[in-house]
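re: ur question from earlier - yeah i can do the single chain one, its not a big deal. heres the input i used so u can compare w yours
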Amino acid sequence: MKKRLLKIFVALIVVASVIIALIAIMNPTSQMPRRYKTENFKRGVELAEEGWIEESLTYFEAELKEHPKNPYAHLLIATLYTELEKYDNAKVAIENAIKYIPKRQKYVRGMMHSLKASIHHSLEEWEEAIKELSLCLSELPNDKASNMERIDAYTLRGEIYNSSKQYELAEQDFRKAEEIRLRDKKIIPSPSIDTINPVTSEAKTSETFNDIRFAGWGDAEWCDNEYIRTVRKYIDAYNNGEITDKNLDKYKDYIQGKFVAEVEPSMAGGAVIYIVFCDHPENVFYSIVYSSVNVQTREIYDYKCIGLRLESSGSECTKEDIKKGLAEHPEVRMW
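and the output i got, formated as tokens:
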């Protein structure tokens, strides 16, 4: 379970952020040299964004044969190897990325250290993770465009401090993240810092926010809960035209009808929900649902669905498999 949660954190927070950063610097006015804006690179980014990891790696490797010092290709390769849990390959790629990236590109350098921190985090190399998160924060520009990345870095470093019982350092990082969030009202609250008092004397134990969120859950609660209901509402709102989500437009024909869901706690806070639509079981989607925690009352509130993305395609699961699974596990329901 723990290894899976670490992968989810990397995939959602780091991989998505790095891909977004690369897309941003590919625009015509960016600092990315024109020689690196090749068809191989562009296609690799497109496939990575869609979740086609092995295919995107092929394009990035082809790009490096032509431009071996392209730091952006090295960075994406490191990102994808991290998601595949091939950490040795990822470390080599990220070191090359850091070596070749110009020092003036502070935002991208910050994202590189963020990715390197996530690799150490996945390997439970806590001191190294803290070091890279500190480098990330020193590189990231202190501006509104970098607010979300700075919140993520402070929050993860705070979680590591909290887990190692360095409560004063954890509180400092949680409060810094909270201060950034309060200055930027458009940012969705980080679930690790969204209480009035992020770390109080009552909360200074080894208990985490997710320990409170999922306290006492049994089979029934994992199969029927507010996290799944929040995703169902989000999908219904999209299908009814009440909200827009351009990331879902290409999958609008696949996300109709009922689905079955599996819930796992997310290290980013809240829950990861894996979804298979009964009419299209070949695709697996995932969503993150954040929730706020009141440490004093232990109340869970303010559930927010952060979109829906394709996790993988080409699954061999069939409708019959789903029916069989439902018959064998009556606690599981269709939504």
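The chain is about 55% helix and 10% strand. not sure if urs matches, ping me
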